[in-house]
Amino acid sequence: MSSSVLSIRLSEQDWALLEAACSQARTNVRDFVRRSAVEAAQLEVLKRRVITIPAKDWERFGACAAKPAREIPDLQDLARRPPTWRR
């Protein structure tokens, strides 16, 4: 796997903030910046995703979308549980 180098300039205030965040996350600047940048890029790409449905599949898609909702007991059970961060 090849890799590339990214070089950026930061103000002293931005650098201090970055170091504080790294300290809290118990990681180094390189790993923190790489992880944060990749996560931000993934979110940006997902936000702008366009889903194209071929004309030949449009009617089948419409039929699926028009069906009434189904009750799925396991999902209903999951929805009743408090999130793990509230337990």
Quick description:
The protein is an all-alpha fold.
Descriptive tags:
flat, mainly alpha, 87 residues, 0% strand, 4 helices
Task: Give an overview of the whole structure.
There is one protein chain. The chain has 87 residues and is mainly alpha-helical. It has one domain. It has 4 helices and no strands. The chain has helices at residues 12-25, 29-47, 55-66, 73-80. The protein is flat, with a radius of gyration of 22 Å. 0% of the residues are buried. The mean pLDDT is 92.
Task: Lay out the secondary structure.
Elements (H helix, E strand, L loop, with lengths): L11 H14 L3 H19 L7 H12 L6 H8 L7
Integer-rounded radius of gyration: 22 Å
Q: Which structural category fits the helices and strands?
A: mainly alpha
Total number of helical segments?
4
Characterize the biggest β-sheet. Answer: none
* SSE ordering: HHHH
According to DSSP, the number of beta strands is: 0
In percent, how helical is the residue content?
55-70%
Share of residues in strands: under 5%
- Taken together, the total number of domains comes to 1
Low-confidence stretches: none
From the N-terminal CA to the C-terminal CA, the straight-line distance is: 41 Å
The general outline is: flat
* Whole-number mean pLDDT: 92
Oligomer: single chain
